[in-house]
Hints:
Blueprint: H1 2-20, E1 21-23, E2 29-31, H2 35-49, E3 51-56, E4 61-65, E5 71-75, E6 79-81, E7 84-85, E8 89-97, H3 100-105, E9 111-113, E10 119-134, E11 137-138, E12 140-141, E13 145-150, E14 162-168, E15 174-178, E16 189-193, E17 196-201, E18 205-212, E19 219-225, E20 235-241, E21 249-250, E22 253-255, E23 260-269, E24 273-282, E25 285-294, E26 299-302, E27 309-311, H4 313-321
Amino acid sequence: MKHLKHLLGTLLLTTLIFTSCEKDDDNDIIIRATAEDFNNLKDAALEDLTQTFQFDAADGSVNLTSENGVEIYINTNCLTLNGNAITGTIDLEFVEIFEKGNMLTTNKPTMGIMPNGDKALLLTGGEFFVEATKDGEALETNCGFQMFIPADLTGGVDNEMILWNGIIDEDGNLVWEEEKRDGAQGEGGVFAEGNNYYGFFQSFGWSNVDRFYNDPRDKTTILVGVPEGYDNTNSSVYISYDGEETGLAQLDTYDPATGLFSEHYGQIPIGLECHIIFATEENDNWKYAIKEVTIVENDIITFTENETSVVTEAQLTTIINDLP
């Protein structure tokens, strides 16, 4: 019996090795990232961007300034835990994202939900995460909070910007939904004055100052093939539009039957000059490949293993930010 158990265990281990590894043309063994490895890499990138603050519930009006000069105004008298007023020390986590390199490594692209339910690229004046906690428990605010956001962080004021709320799905992916202002109270919204955006946020979580990318050209769908062994659990595919530094699109659907990622909404302009990006994990670093593409109708773009490189988070961030 002991020999049988040992044999079964050896067979299982061998199966796992051969299902997660293969050899390339040079006979080198390639180990594919697991979903957990890839998620851990994105979580680490987000943690690197997380700023923390502390203040007291008795402080009343609190003014905090981020590393990029964003000012956060919170009234501690409005903070509650399960509907009850709080006392003592409050912890605040804050994330600010303005560049597409950070959007990619944290998996926080700028894809907005259109009125018909489809998704399309947004251009951002800043993506933000704000969470207040007391002894590790998330707090709520019954009067919202405000932020003053320097517009020069994203190329200057754009008066078409509106507020969006971030929705995280069961796979950890983020999509943006337009924030609906309270018709009775007139709460929420964003406006520009001088060289700042003034945002009035109704709740904590992910928020965004954005507008839809606008291009009059005819649109199409595209498909992207990635190296064997990768899918939407252990890799991602993004699109960087040339000339647009404040947005990053994502191909958010994957067909296991064809092995292709898809932009199936038909929102990619024909003739668009862009860069398609494949990203995954390898040995706690980023494995990636980039293709320079001019979109044609019903385009199919394919990545191979030999086109990939492995870099650190900081290196990939710089590479993506330096795209045209």
